Amino acid sequence: MGSSDSAQGKPPIILIHGLWMAPSCWKHWIDYYQAAGYDVTAPGWPGLEGRSIADINKDPSVLEGLSIKKIVDHYDTIIRDMKSSPIIMGHSFGGLFVQILLSRGLGVAGVAIDPANPNDVLVLPWSQLKAVAPHLANPFNRKGIATLTHGQFHYAFTNELSREDSDKVYEELAIPGDAEVLWQGALAGLHKTGDASVIWDKADRAPLLLIGGGNDNLVPPAVQKATLKKYTGPAIVEYKEFEGRTHHTAGQTGWEKVADYALDFANKYRSK
């Protein structure tokens, strides 16, 4: 953490990306929060550090063999090595990881943006099923790589854009995904425990904000609302839905409103 950040008493911020997106999907948020005096980092999933999007697309084998637990353990180590406990924000699967990390007692506040289903949240809206079904059709590829086509990316992430503009985002930010992580997420709701487990009644959990997008095809608001209902106990958990926002919310026009709301929540409620 930088000295100016320490002097101002601002916690560092760690941003966690999801499946099918590179860590650089947070580039606008990093600049925005740094300009406000925060120390911000957006480390990639295991094996992605120091690799360009072109390198990952050319050889995605580094993603094979991952699991939700391996990825969360990776971020657990990063956070425990930080000088100060951070605000943890994540998108999609990154939002699920935020909830698991908070269940482990980490962070001063957490923000889960369009988060994937935790264990025991059995909700699968039609648009979500449509987005992931092509990658679940072949169970023999469960230990392999799941890659979105340009058209699939447009439906799942950037449905607010024209196909031409969506293709530009795809070329700039999209990477292949680990099929095992996708399978774990797809089946999480069928099991009460597993890699995607969250401690729903943890009394000393850091404050948590769930954010949904009203036009999100991949993880519609029904998922976040069902997740919210699972939380019990005295720890703070709130839900905010942004109308018209898609799964591309971190880069969609107007992303600053989402970033501001997330940071305002974290600073209002974070443990000191």
Beta-strand content bin: 5-15%
Number of helices: 11
User: Could you give the count of β-strands?
Assistant: 8
Task: Kindly provide the radius of gyration, computed on alpha-carbon positions and rounded to a whole number of angstroms.
Answer: 17 Å
Main beta sheet strand tally, sense and closure: 6 strands, parallel
Overall pLDDT level: 94
Highlighted features:
single chain, 272 residues, alpha/beta, 6-stranded parallel beta sheet, two-stranded antiparallel ribbon, 11 helices, disordered N terminus
Write a compact overview of the structure shown.
Helices cover 40% and strands 12% of the residues.
Q: Your description of this structure?
A:
By secondary structure, the protein is an alpha/beta fold. It has 11 helices and 8 strands. The protein has helices at residues 3-8, 27-35, 53-58, 68-80, 93-103, 126-136, 150-156, 163-173, 179-187, 221-230, 255-269, and strands at 13-16, 40-41, 87-91, 109-113, 145-146, 177-178, 208-213, 237-242. The strands form 2 sheets. A 6-stranded parallel sheet has the order 2-1-3-4-7-8, with helices on both faces. The protein has a two-stranded antiparallel ribbon with strand order 5-6. α7 (150-156) packs across α8. The radius of gyration is 17 Å and the shape is globular. The two termini are 16 Å apart. Mean pLDDT is 94; it is low at 1-7.
How are the elements arranged and paired?
Blueprint: H1 3-8, E1 13-16, H2 27-35, E2 40-41, H3 53-58, H4 68-80, E3 87-91, H5 93-103, E4 109-113, H6 126-136, E5 145-146, H7 150-156, H8 163-173, E6 177-178, H9 179-187, E7 208-213, H10 221-230, E8 237-242, H11 255-269
Parallel strand pairs: 1-2, 1-3, 3-4, 4-7, 7-8
Antiparallel strand pairs: 5-6
